[in-house]
Design goal:
single chain; alpha+beta; 6-stranded antiparallel beta sheet; globular
């Protein structure tokens, strides 16, 4: 029974935390991290899917690069919020 609870908890770690309409997952890699990007213009959510301790000095750059790779949009300056596992923000699309 404990293993079932653990598996359910781990599965929930890779889901969108808010109800954004039209949400679909796009996988992206940047700076050694792997992410699932969930865009809903102008908002996005990024879930980090790789293991290991993130580095503070490159994580925001990695999120911005993953969003750009997945959507073609830039991250709006100062919009990143969240932590190393779930990051939210706003995009600026051309």
């Amino acid at each position: 029974m404990r293993y079932v609870v653990l598996l359910l908890a781990l599965g929930a770690c890779n889901t969108v935390k808010e109800d954004l309409p039209g949400q679909s997952r796009i996988k992206a890699e940047a700076y050694g991290y792997t992410f699932n990007v969930f865009p809903a213009d102008p908002d996005f959510q990024v879930v980090r899917t790789n293991m290991g301790l993130p580095k503070r000095d490159t994580f925001a750059l990695a999120v911005a690069a993953a969003v750009k790779q997945a959507t073609g949009c830039e991250v709006a300056e100062g919009s990143l919020k969240g932590d190393y596992n779930l990051t939210r923000g706003k995009m600026r699309c051309p």
